[in-house]
Amino acid sequence: MTTEPAIPGDPPPSRWLARVVVVSDGVADGSREDRGGPALRAALEAAGATVEVVVVSPDGVEAVADTLKAQAAGFDGLIVTTGGTGFGPRDLTPEGTRRVIDREAPGLAEAMRLVNPLGRLSRGIAGSLGGTLVLNVPGSPKGAVECLDAVLDVVPHALALLAGHRPH
Length: 168
Prior knowledge:
A hairpin with a 2-residue loop joins β5 (126-129) and β6 (132-137). The chain has one domain (16-162): MoaB/Mog-like domain (Molybdenum Cofactor Biosythetic Enzyme, Chain A). A six-stranded mixed beta sheet has the order 2-1-3-6-5-4, with helices on both faces. The two termini are 23 Å apart. By secondary structure, it is an alpha/beta fold. Helices cover 37% and strands 21% of the residues.
């Protein structure tokens, strides 16, 4: 990941804060190993983020919504969820996210879907919750990192805007 500014005239991004939410019944109950969280942590840190925490949430609208609210409380930065964006009966991360975000950012979700033909199967969304930017990425480590990489160059700019800075 480059540290070049996403928007001409912006200063190169400084370190920024991130949190990862792994959405998986199997990881939550200990029956499955978490591979998405470590992959996202590594990608975020390589991009200049300070990853404060990786937490696990079971699947489900309420569980995801409650976890996002708790992680966003008093936090200004990026929250990336991994898992629950497909067509399975418990894949409800977008619904839980939509329940708590203030505004959607469809351009980010669209960009993430374009990186891979399988991206067309993702129902993930993106949006803001206070000073937090929330991105839903797939549960597979490869898909999660590919989708994140598709938008990482604009994340520092989006976070600056959410913080009230006017870099234009």
